[in-house]
């Protein structure tokens, strides 16, 4: 697909304007949830409200990273058939790019991974990376200020700072020394950063379950990424010049749009579905259209532009390596003109790689390359549906039977 620089500049400008427009509404939503403002018109439920409505207890915990980001985690210590008690095995689950902890409860009791883990006897912790709906705070920086340093991060910092902070907090709070980990997409990328650059964390992981693992990206098929990747430097420059560093923030506008355009009987419902398919792969039978308004109320949850830029750099280079700041800054930061590769040979935690044949963002060949690069793989595990795509790992109708039961079974073996 060939797109001119001028065309991409125009598309980036339109995206920037839309982002700024959304940013003006997210403040109202967050202010209301903090008790500092009136309720906006018809906002949808976020993670904690979903969990309470589903009949499970929930706790909200905050932890501050070493570089000053205040992250929110949600804990589900028990459930209707498995009450909270001390000494339970801990399971920590981390969401993907542009998503939030809501992914793990949105399918509902008996279907969502978080609830299935609780019902299986686990003390479940749901992480939220910096910059998403639940983690938009810093001890110094304002995420809504123009030219703020708040958004100066990619998924490198999520792996290096966020995951260690959240894991340490969960272990200290529960009195455990290690836990089970499951992550989707970026939740796997950040895990491999943590365990390769801070290898002491390998000892705190009993087993890791990588759902749609993303590290190497040379063979991805998503037209979205393949189209903008060749122009990533120009887009990054333009967004910085415009002072827009947040990509697709969550907002009341997205919620209302999802409810009006994507609900049952809406003419645009199939358009909503096909937008998701163009990102992660087509698998129409696995998408519950009735859930689209709830999905779009929580996704996109906000991210730094640098997170997308970093993935595009990985596609262009064919390497799993640190952020490329350009020749001069690379020399200053890394002492070399190119960023260093992540040392995956230092990942020693037991890792199970779960993949789908029709995943347009985590190609089977790239997952196999990752499998051969880590030292202690549990194995490669294919989801049996030949059309299983990238988003089915969190929203698929049959995710419980085709994937989650297997994940829990493996976790049980490693306790």
UniProtKB/TrEMBL annotation:
Catalytic center residues: 185, 359, 390
Record GO terms (molecular function): hydrolase activity, acting on ester bonds
Residues annotated as signal peptide: 1-23
Biological process, per Gene Ontology: lipid catabolic process
Keywords: Glycoprotein, Hydrolase, Lipid degradation, Lipid metabolism, Signal
Ranges of residues in domain Partial AB-hydrolase lipase: 47-106
Sequence similarity: Belongs to the AB hydrolase superfamily. Lipase family.
UniProt-recorded name of the protein: Lipase
